[in-house]
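Provenance

Sequences were taken from public entries as deposited. Structures were produced by running a predictor on each sequence independently, with no templates supplied. The record for SWIRM domain-containing protein from Citrus sinensis is shown for reference.
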Amino acid sequence: MFTESVPKHCHSLLDSAYNYLVSNGYINFGVAPEIKEKIPVEPSSNKLRVLVIGAGLAGLAAARQLMRLGFRVTVLEGRKRAGGRVYTKKMEGGAGNRISASADLGGSVLTGTLGNPLGILAKQLGSLLHKVRDKCPLYRLDGNSVDPEIDMKVEADFNRLLDKASRLRQLMGEVAMDVSLGSALETFWRVYWDSGNAEAMNLFNWHLANLEYANASLLSKLSLAFWDQDDPYDMGGDHCFLPGGNGRLVQALVENVPILYEKTVHTIRYGSDGVQVLAGSQVFEGDMVLCTVPLGVLKSGSIKFIPELPQRKLDAIKRLGYGLLNKVAMLFPYVFWETDLDTFGHLTDDSSSRGEFFLFYSYATVAGGPLLIALVAGEAAHKFESMPPTDAVTKVLQILKGIYEPKGINVPEPIQTVCTRWGGDPFSLGSYSNVAVGASGDDYDIMAESVGDGRLFFAGEATIRRYPATMHGAFLSGLRETAKMAHCANARALRMKVKVGKIPSKNAYSCASALTDLFREPDLEFGSFSVIFSWKNPDPKSPSILRVTFNDPRKKNHGDQPHSNKRLFEQLQSHFNQQQQLHVYTLLTRQQVLDLREVRGGDEMRLNFLCEKLGVKLIGRKGLGSTADSVISSIKAERGIRKQTSTFSASKLGISKLKTGTLKQKMIRKAKIVRNVKKSVPSPNKLTAPPNLKVSSECMITNQVPPTSSCS
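Predicted structure for SWIRM domain-containing protein:
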């Protein structure tokens, strides 16, 4: 769409921007036919093998994206189905199973549609999302509706309590990390509001239950300091249901993805030579592994990591909370409840069971049949795990009959019922994560860190700080890890190229001598850095050789501000006195050289950029290998031709060699002055660089590693 409106000399920039956005999963992800066509039928033979553990939304998102990038992917799933904690069950009954509905027993609500990737997937599937309507009447124990005025007053009071808790944590500072949200709210309620009003107290408990549902945790375990740390990043827009259930997303995502079911992983080995994943008696080998198992599984220790995970990650796994939400799904022969609402609530006078069937979801408009789902949150969700299903259904029916039979509405027996047990499911051991007392949002970032120099990666809702405990958070974490794995793979491939060929070739000594001669007149110089490259090849990706000189008495680093972090620079300098020099080298692309030259802050900052941002290792001359030898030979031959041409031209013009050399030095000095005054003015050293070389290193160099990644 943009090609025609972008000048031709900028097309390489356009391609780089496009590739960057695609590889990071910012655009063109999902299940649209045009996107599916981009997935290679056969993976590239030279691409790495990636094992993905878990076929939930995180694992499926990563698997599809990895396949698009040409990786060889195998997904190992412990269950007999894909989707993980997203599970849509087809419920049916009646004569000839004429009545049916799709029940979301796990993740059900798309929380916000603006920017939500799952909303985009739904659109690709041609589905219109159903907005969850705001109307939510609450019913007392006797079945009567709660007085609207009391309802509004208690809700306003509850919101004021949350505001007071927010101000309290600001006053407490770091101490708030050791205090629970529940203790603060209940203390404020006793101090500022009259708890003698039974109905008001029951309403207050209902709101507490709703908060426990949102966080899948007892409020007594939620951190006062950070329980809502992700609120600023909430997706905008409505909360919605996907007609037909979220299983439709899973069904679309698994298409053509190689998944091996009923593979319960118990061991993950990782090291410099690759990874091994053990499932039962089978061993699966690969170059990298992505672990997407729920936080509850990591907490249980059912998967052994060899070597053990870093203590930093183990501590984060321990600190983060992981709670429980259960459901009772009921398929009825017909709809007997109101059709102008999607939710209604029920109060209790027992605070310990305030989350038991406190909220009902009506799926009649989206499930394809008369389906009601009752939620069980907080402490009640844990008790529910051991409650017989028949007892649970009986309790739910008593609540429904207490609400509707006084109105003259008969509540029929359900055709089919399902009770979830997410806490007892060995592949989830709970529902979703939260920030427990003592934890913070930083722990989500630690959960997302890769381990083993770019061999072991982690994804899932408990690894994404901005969108934890959501379906879209899990999906986005899969795309995030794909980008990290691609970066690591590219960086590893580049390093392998640099490391190969350590046996000296026949012309190794002549190349070493030629290298010394070539650097007597480098093509670029800045600070302690000098560069030689081919003038005939303007391609930004063409190779060049960078030399860094330590303890060069001629270089005083004029024009650069000293940087406080001098440790690396000074350690290298300390090995040599003022009369000695150390030369170290590396291969860079031409674009990387230009980016390096633009770094401000002196040689220390340039070294930091070189090692941290570009992930480059500086080596001695012998370590450059055969790739550098061919570059040296090419530049030497090119300069020989250039010298003959320049000598011939100089003799015709009557210019001596001395004057030519003097002129060149003046041009270099002038270029440095111009660059310091106005960055956008091209220097004489850039005369051969076309405009499309002005590409950010983040977009152009696909083998770069982000600073947060650790790869070898």
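The chain has three domains: 18-83+245-319+433-492, 133-237+325-421, 506-552+580-642.
The chain has a mean pLDDT of 85.
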